[in-house]
Amino acid sequence: MVASLGEAYQETISTFKTRIVVQGDPSLLQSRMMPERVRACLMAGIRFGLLWHQQGGRRWKLVFQRKALRRALDSLS
C-alpha cells in the first residue's frame, strides 16, 4: 500500500514545476522503504488539504478556530 501511494505521488505530484523539498539525514532516505514512506505521507497530506478545502476549510478558519478544532479532535479520541 505504501509503495503504491509513493508511486502515485511520483507519477502525479512530483511532475509539477514547484517541488517539495524534504530535508533531513540523507542516510535515512537511502534506506529501502523510506522514500516510499515519505512520498506516501506527502500524498496523504496533499489529499487531506484538498478534502479539507472542498469541505469549506480555509486558512483563516485554521488560524482563528484552532481551539474549536482541537476540542473536536479530542472528543473523537
From TrEMBL:
<dbReference type="Pfam" id="PF04356">
    <property type="entry name" value="DUF489"/>
</dbReference>
<keyword id="KW-1003">Cell membrane</keyword>
<keyword id="KW-0963">Cytoplasm</keyword>
<dbReference type="InterPro" id="IPR035932">
    <property type="entry name" value="HflD-like_sf"/>
</dbReference>
<dbReference type="InterPro" id="IPR007451">
    <property type="entry name" value="HflD"/>
</dbReference>
<protein>
    <recommendedName>
        <fullName>Lysogenization regulator</fullName>
    </recommendedName>
</protein>
<keyword id="KW-0472">Membrane</keyword>
